[in-house]
Design a protein that fits this description.
mainly alpha; 64 residues
Length: 64
């Protein structure tokens, strides 16, 4: 089995989830920068995914 260590999201095949991952990474890095944090890639990705989930929940509440 090949190791995925060092792989970037942009290196993966172009599927819909790849765009979500890239968006999550950008959001996470922006949030960390605003809060003066220097996260690793996984932390930034998790923060960005949480932001995407928050946005989806907010949009869902607005449409109800």
């Amino acid at each position: 089995m090949k190791s995925t260590t060092g792989k970037k999201i942009s290196d993966l095949i172009n599927e819909p989830w790849r765009d979500v991952g890239l968006d999550a990474m950008k959001r996470g890095m922006d949030i960390c920068k605003r809060n003066e944090l220097s996260p690793d890639g996984n932390t930034a990705l998790c923060i960005g995914l949480c932001d995407i989930i928050r946005e989806i929940k907010d949009n869902k509440k607005e449409t109800q």
